Amino acid sequence: xxxxLKQDVEKLGFKDDLLEVKPGYARNxxxxxxxxxxxxxxxxxxxxxxxxxxxxxxxxxxEEAEKLAKSxxxxxxxxxAKAGENGKIFGSVNTIQLADALTALGFEIDRKRITIKxxxxxxxxxxxxxxxxxKGIVQTINFxxxxx
Length: 148
What we know:
With 148 residues, the chain is an alpha+beta fold. The protein has helices at residues 23-30, 41-73, 95-104, and strands spanning 2-5, 18-20, 36-38, 76-81, 88-93, 114-116, 121-123, 125-134, 137-147. The strands form three sheets. It has a four-stranded mixed beta sheet. It has a three-stranded antiparallel beta sheet with strand order 2-1-3, with helices on both faces. β8 and β9 form a beta hairpin.
């Protein structure tokens, strides 16, 4: 069944993507949760017109995301955590703490767009995370967990 996504759906696609999915998935999950619409002829025409209007806006957003990616590439974010004598921290570092640390540096990034590569983080040290800045632009950032 051919559908048009109304929102980003994790592991499926982004908003306004035209996709082919199994009919049961579309009828029982995507359409009732208003994540997608059936791609009829009229919906495809509306979709095409919306894409034309959004093309200019998307190019500006992509340029801003690329600038942000370059500025993030050079930074190493420090996250403080309470730690024991052997470097093991109490609890773990997650995307919420990383998003807060990025906000403190002046980068407004939603925690849902951050993926920590080797989760869970329970030791002091250097780690990496992927930040999805825009459709197709994923920047790897370095962050350091330090003891307080």
